[in-house]
Amino acid sequence: MFWYDKQALAAAGITEDPATLAENGEWTTDKFLEMNAKLHDAGLAGTMYWNYWATHWSWLSSQGLDAPYDDSGAFVANEDADTVEAMQQFGDLFQDGTFVVADTLPDGAGADSMFVTHKAGFFVQGRYTIGTVSATGEQDSYDIVPCRPLTARRHPPAWPRASSPSTARRR
Predict the structure, then answer these.
(1) What is the pLDDT of residues 112-141, one digit of tens each?
(2) What count of other Cβ atoms lies within 10 Å of the Cβ of residue 12?
(3) Nearest-angstrom CA–CA distance, 109 and 107
(4) By C-alpha distance, which of 52, 68, 84, 65 is closest to 150?
(5) CA-CA distance, 114 to 66, in Å (whole number)?
(6) Are 115 and 132 in contact (CB under 8 A)?
(7) What is the pLDDT of residues 41-58, one digit of tens each?
(8) Which one of 5, 22, 29, 138 has the largest count of C-beta atoms within 10 Å of its C-beta?
(9) CA 18, CA 142: separation in Å to the nearest integer?
(10) Distance CA 68, CA 56 (A)
């Protein structure tokens, strides 16, 4: 799931609420990337991701692309033009600083610190982040929005929706 910081979005001039867009079926890759560009242009991190296999797979899945492995377990993502294009786009967003690798941030100024000090718009984390945002005393400044499906290029991804008190009220 994407956690997002309403104050960071507002500081970047973003007036649309991601959760409301998702509720209305308007949460798309284009909208997400538009928000990230505005955050980056405002000197903020767009989205922070941890560097591990699920980060890459979640990007492919959110784009409606097939799993990177075939039925025999062979890696085939590099043979699919849409998957290669999606991963190139993903990599380019890290290269230009719009997306940030959370693992590479310095001690004392890590991803949690950036997020709770309104220096990043989105943070890909699980529901355990509830404790982090609760500790700020500004819980209403944060919310969540599903990563999937941002865009359904082929078919909707088949991974479960995360559950939290926030998503429960939206169901």
Answers:
(1) 888 988 999 999 887 778 878 878 888 889
(2) 19
(3) 5
(4) 65
(5) 33
(6) yes
(7) 999 999 999 998 888 888
(8) 5
(9) 11
(10) 10
101 torsion bin: left (phi>0), alpha (psi -120 to 50), beta (else): beta
Question: 122: closest CA among 14, 35, 60?
Answer: 35
Q: What is the DSSP letter of 82?
A: H
pTM value?
0.81
Query: 99 has which bridge partners?
Result: 47
Opening angle at CA 120, ends 60 and 99, nearest 5: 35
CA–CA dist 31, 27 (Å, integer): 6
The β-bridge partners of 76 are: none
Interacting residues of 170 by C-beta distance below 8 A, sequence separation 6+: 19, 22, 23
Phi, psi of 45 (to 5 degrees): -75, 140
